[in-house]
Amino acid sequence: MAKQSSTRSAWRPLIWLLVLIIALIGANGAGVLWNGASWTPKLALDLEGGTQIVLTPTLQSGETVSPEQLTQAVSIIRQRIDAAGVSESEINTQGSNNIVVSIPGQPDDQTLARIQASAKLDFRPVLVAGAPSSAQIGPDGATITPSYDPSLPNTPSIAPSNGSDLNWITPELQSRYLAFTCGSDAAAGVNAAPADEPLVTCDDTNTVKFILGPVELDGSDISDSTAGLITTQTGSSTGQWAVNLVFNGAGTAKFADITARLNGLQGSLNQFAIVLDGNVISAPATKAVITDGKPQISGGFTQESAKTLADQLKYGALPIGFEVQSSDSISATLGSTQLQSGLLAGLIGLILVVVYSLIQYRTLGLVTVFSLAVAAVITYFLVTLLSWREGYRLSLAGVAGLIVAIGITADSFIVYFERIRDELRDGRGLESAVENGWRRAVRTIVASDAVNFLAAGVLFILAVGNVRGFALTLGLTTIVDLFVVSLFTHPVLRLLSRSNFFASGHRLSGLDPVALGAVYRGRAQFAAPSAARVSAGKAAKSAKEAARRQTIAERKAASSDTDVATKGDD
């Protein structure tokens, strides 16, 4: 019964692994049938080619673009493209004015609109703020019921008197707010509204949903923005970070009127939202009427977050409009030949690993072969699924990450096999050696994979472009390695340990006792010592025990007898 229970426990993870593989294949199949996905991963610029768009700023006579503004524009465009789910793109500056955007494949209209839109910064009063899925409307959750002209149901019969007037909220705007989902693909395309109309949007973390009034200030009204520590009236530091704005003359006058109005309101109506590219990056409350044009934004900032917001305000203060100078299709920078070379290198590496495993571990090496095959299937469908759902594109650097994974995966098997052999050398039976070897090996495997995953994670966060593709595939295959060695390799060895071929230590099994240099003879049987050696050992032990039990007198007598015998011989 115990053996049957152990067999069932060995089959259980294999069944779960089969369910996982079927689920991955089913998810990809559903994408192919109903969502225009493909059974193969999408390729990046270096392997497929794509579209190159050259943007040039639209400047007034005498205006120039500083390197800092151009760098900030590159950063904003990269964030837009990443938000659209397009990976492995390249965004660089060209000369002192232009920006070159290279995107794999053919970009859709939405992606082109994201690229060409100007980096505009707006200030809008908050009308409603709630949870991302909140069904509440109005300040503090109250339902708003403005008066409307029945003939014009979507237009207030009472014209809003200012940006904070709740008569901006029409039935149509209420419905749009309730249906709006933060972070959804649909929401990404509608975070825009004319400057003189309300805007439904979310903050940049997708944790708060807003209805904002019309634009009352824009980026051109800011002359400077810096991050610094808050100081008291005596000049001492509080240790808290804040963002300090400086408006120009026109902005100072407008901001004084705005804060005078907001300061008398309650709840979310007291907030003033800073909107960059249609998303709220900050929505501070108004605590006083500010007439000098130098407001301070505070509240939970770190040095880094304060500097980031200050940069966004400062560089968004000069909204740079772009126009498309040229848009051309570009061929793959590397092409199919390099892809084939990369795949050939991976195949050669795989063959070498297989040959080594069969030479070193004999039949046991076949477990390595099948484990690598299972890992390859899981990795392939994961990459294909990411390509469909997340816009991931496979570059040559990503292929390199997959090739490196062959060695990482094979290393886990080698560690496990050697631990089993160590247990066999200590005289354990095969079933016991498999279990004890696994307990010893899994700690090493997890530690090794954790280091690899940490390195891949750091590289993914800090790098850009193709290097991130390498980091992604490396981290992905590291996780797959843990799944395969736990759900396939170990259960298979548990089953094989019950077969006569492996348990008897056949010379082709990879567990040959002669090759291992152990006294193990299969199923915990040891070589029996010869009868002569047993008799001699018993005689020597008896003589030693008898000598130990002699009295002093007996020892002296024995010694005298020995002396007499010696003299007699003389």
Explain the overall architecture.
It is a single chain. The protein has 570 residues and is of the alpha+beta class. It folds into four domains: 2-39 and 337-516, Multidrug efflux transporter AcrB transmembrane domain (Multidrug efflux transporter AcrB transmembrane fold, Up-down Bundle), CATH 1.20.1640.10; 46-115, Alpha-Beta Plaits, CATH 3.30.70.3400; 120-319, Gyrase A, domain 2; 531-569. The protein is 51% helix and 16% strand. The protein has 17 helices and 15 strands. The chain has helices at 2-34, 45-48, 67-83, 109-116, 171-179, 185-188, 249-262, 303-316, 336-361, 365-389, 396-425, 430-462, 466-496, 500-503, 513-516, 531-549, 552-569, and strands at residues 50-58, 90-94, 98-104, 121-130, 148-149, 152-156, 199-202, 209-212, 217-218, 222-231, 237-247, 272-276, 279-282, 296-301, 321-330. Strands 4, 7, 8, 9, 12 and 13 form a six-stranded antiparallel beta sheet that branches. A four-stranded antiparallel beta sheet has the order 2-3-1-15, with helices on one face. A three-stranded antiparallel beta sheet has the order 10-11-14. A hairpin with a 2-residue loop joins strand 12 and strand 13. The longest helix has 33 residues, at 2-34. The protein is elongated.
